[in-house]
Amino acid sequence: MSQALINPRTRRDYGATSSVIPEANSATISSSNAEFDSLSEEICYNINVMHSSTKQLEKQLKLVSTAKNLLAFDKNILSINTIDTNERIQITSQNLQRLQTVVQQGDRQQQRQMDNIKLDFRTALDKYSKQQKLISQAMRQSYQKAAEAEHDAELSEKTHLLQEQRQEQAELERQHDLLVERGRRVEQLEADILDVNYIMKKLSGMVEEQREEVDAIAINVEETAENTEKGVSALQNTVVSQSKRRRTVLIILLIVVLIALIVIGIIVSKLK
C-alpha cells in the first residue's frame, strides 16, 4: 500500500495537548509532549492504513472465486498483508508501548487520548485480522478446488490414456488374430494347390492309360478288319469253288460282322 493512497491528515482528533500545557512548563515536559504528539500522529496514520488494507481485502475477497490468474491474485494479497500493513501493525504496537511511557502522570487528557488511540487500534486490528482469516479461508478453498480440478484432470487424462492403451492393445490383438488367420488360409491355399497338382498328375496318368487302351482297341479293330477281309476273301473263293457252301459262308460272314459290331460297340462305350 503506497502512502499516496493514504491521507496522513485523515485521522481522529484525539485532542491537542499543547493548549493545556502552560508555557511555564519545564523543557522536559515540552519534549515529552512533542514525542506524545508525534507518536499519536504516526499511530493514527497507521490505523488509517489498516482500515484501507481491510477494505482492499474485502474487495479481494469478492474476487477470489472469479480470479483467473491465481498466482497474480495471491501475490497481490501477499503485498497487502506482509509487505506494508503487517509491518505497520508491528510498528504501531511498539509505538503504543512507547506512548504509555511518555504520558504525563496526572494528565487526564493525554490518558483519554491514549485510551482512544488504543481502542481504535484494537478495533482496526480486529477487523483487519478477521478479514485476513476470511480471505485466507477463501484462498484455501480456491486452492483446494483448483488442486482437485487438476487432480481430476490428471486422473481423467490417465484414464483416457489407459483406455487408449487398452484400445490399442485390443487392436494389436485383433491384427494378430487376422494375421494368424491369414497365415492359416495361405497354408490351406498351398495345400489346395498341392492337391490340384496331385489330381492333375493323376488325371494325366489316367489319360495316358486311356490313350494306350484306345491304341490297343484300334489295333484290335484293325486286326479284326484284316481278319474280316481275309474271311470275305476266303468266302468269295469258297463261293466260287463251292457254291453249295454259300449259305454256310454267309452265315459265318454275318456272325463275323456281328462280332465286329459288338466289339466296336464295346470299344465306343469304353471311350465314352
SSE topology sketch:
Blueprint: H1 27-63, H2 70-102, H3 108-241, H4 246-271
Helix pairs in contact: 1-2, 1-3, 2-3, 3-4
Describe the protein's architecture and organization.
- The chain folds into 2 domains: 3-155, Up-down Bundle (Methane Monooxygenase Hydroxylase, Chain G, domain 1), CATH 1.20.58; 209-271.
- The chain starts with 26 loop residues before the first helix and ends with a helix.
- Helix 1 runs antiparallel to helix 2 (70-102), helix 1 (27-63) runs parallel beside helix 3 and helix 3 (108-241) packs antiparallel against helix 4 (246-271).
- The longest helix is centred in the middle third of the chain and has 134 residues, at 108-241.
- Helices cover 85% and strands 0% of the residues.
- It has 272 residues and is mostly helical.
- The chain has helices spanning 27-63, 70-102, 108-241, 246-271.
- The protein contains 4 helices and no strands.
- It holds the Pfam family Syntaxin_2.
DSSP summary: helix tally: 4
Question: What fraction strand?
Answer: under 5%
Regions with little confidence, pLDDT below 50 for 5+ residues:
1-11, 15-24
Average pLDDT over all residues = 76
Query: What's the number of extended β-strand segments?
Result: 0
Sheet with most strands: none
Domain module tally = 2
* CATH fold category name of the largest domain: Methane Monooxygenase Hydroxylase, Chain G, domain 1
CATH architecture of the largest domain: Up-down Bundle
Integer-rounded radius of gyration: 65 Å
Shape: rod-shaped
Please provide the ordered H/E string of secondary-structure elements. HHHH
Given helix and strand content, the structural type is mainly alpha
End-to-end separation in angstroms reads 120 Å
Estimated helix fraction: over 70%
CATH class descriptor of the largest domain? Mainly Alpha
Pfam families: SNARE, Syntaxin_2
Family: Belongs to the syntaxin family.
GO molecular function: SNAP receptor activity; SNARE binding
Coiled coil: 155-182
